[in-house]
Amino acid sequence: MKYRKITIAILLVLVSVLVLQWHRLSILQAKQQVHPQTPDGLQPVQLFSFDLPYEIWFAGERIPLEMFYIAENLERELIVNTYWHSSTMLLLKRAGRWLPVIEPILEEQGVPNDLKYLCMIESNLTNTRSPAGAVGFWQFMESTAKEYGLEVNTNVDERYHLEKATRAACRYFKKAYDKYGSWALVAAAYNAGTKRIDGFLSEQQASSYFDLLMAEETERYLFRMIAIKMIMNDPDKYGFYPLAEPQYQPLKWRTMLVVESIPNLAEFAWSQGVSYKLLKYFNPWLRSNQLPVSSGKSYEIKIPIAPFNLTHQEVQTILLNTNQEAVPIKPEIPVYDR
Questions:
Q1: Residue 227: which of 60, 88, 323 has the closest Cα?
Q2: For residue 104, is the peptide bond before it cis, meaning its omega torsion is within 30 degrees of 0?
Q3: What is the mean pLDDT of the chain?
Q4: Over pLDDT 90: what percentage of the chain?
């Protein structure tokens, strides 16, 4: 009887140990399902949402985060742009090259500096063309571009001319602000058009961007701008490390005044010591292989200078003269400090 009790006690202990081990194994499996390890045993990237600040301002206007859908819309864009790593990283790198061109013009024209983020979300700071036909950093349609003083034809398209297009955008902004008295509505009008925004305001008997029901793209528009602003102002917080990821250098050039037609831009480029490709990179508004210049008209063409004027032929010549092998050289680039 005594041995029987001992045997039962031992069995109970064993059962308890087995149950405990099973419980621990279950917990471990559950954790692995939540945070699975990669085949090499490394912990994968973990994704988190971010707490919004108590107050956010855009172009001098307070964003009403007390309204639940305002906070949720902003959080959505913050998450999307934070975890869309490649796009946002490239945008931060391009900012070092192009914002030094854009920001002084905004200041010169009396437009809030925050409107630079509109350009950033419109085109990612590239001379892209949308399926609808909007072109350039500021994504002007042809009719709007001409309305605001830009030249658009077969040979010249100033929607691709960053300085001129930025000034045209400023003219649009100031005219829209005179109409609405709100930079948020100005941004919405830039996306949807003033006629559509006028219709929304009238039909819904509203006066504020934040009370309007609009198409999803337009409703997201302002919050995308604010999200990019938040990331640029505190990149470390959102997982972007500017000290480790330097920006692209601002371009350097000399300006040539052209008062006579150029029949062949490739020949012109080589006469200036640069390739046709470099000429077009610095002057994307030149849309053909020629530049007709009518009487009394003139154009300013940018001619790249060192270190941005190197052609492959020159690189090969330099290496040949120094008896060196071609090796990639990373130029010194100023880090992101905006």
A1: 88
A2: no
A3: 87
A4: 71
The half-sphere exposure of 307 on its side-chain side, counting CA atoms within 13 A, is 9
Q: What is the pTM of this model?
A: 0.81
Contacts of 236 (CB under 8 A, 6+ apart): 242
Q: Give CA separation, 87 vs 24, 80, 81, 93, 281, in Å.
A: 42, 10, 8, 10, 21
Same domain membership, residue 93 and residue 171: yes
pLDDT at residue 68 in the model: 95
Residues 135 and 203 in one domain: yes
In a domain, 332, yes or no: no
Q: What is the mean pLDDT of residues 95-101?
A: 96
Give Dmax over CA atoms of the chain in angstroms.
121
Q: Is the pLDDT of residue 20 over 50?
A: no
Residue 334 burial class via C-beta count within 10 angstroms: exposed 0-12, middle 13-18, buried 19 and up: exposed
Amino acid in the structure at residue 199:
G
Tokens of 98: 């192009």
Q: Are residues 178 and 134 in the same domain?
A: yes
Residues, the chain: 338
Does residue 34 have a pLDDT over 50? no
Q: What does the block give as tokens for 233? A: 């102002």
Note whether 277 and 230 are same-domain residues. no
- Shared domain for 222 and 260, answered yes or no, is no
**CA dist., res. 137 & res. 149, Å (int):** 16
Contact 223, 187 (CB under 8 A): no
Q: pLDDT band at residue 23, thresholds of 50, 70 and 90?
A: very low
Which structural domain range is residue 118 located in?
A: 57-238
Confirm whether 49 is domain-assigned: no
39 found inside a domain: no
Q: Is residue 177 part of a domain?
A: yes
Q: Which residues contact 92 (CB under 8 A, 6 or more apart)?
A: 231, 232, 235, 240, 242, 245, 247, 336
Tokens at 140, concatenated: 């002007």
Give pLDDT, residue 316: 87
Looking up tokens 């007709």 gives 292
Same domain membership, residue 193 and residue 130: yes
Q: What's the rounded Cα separation, in Å, for the pair 134 and 122?
A: 10
pLDDT value for 84: 82
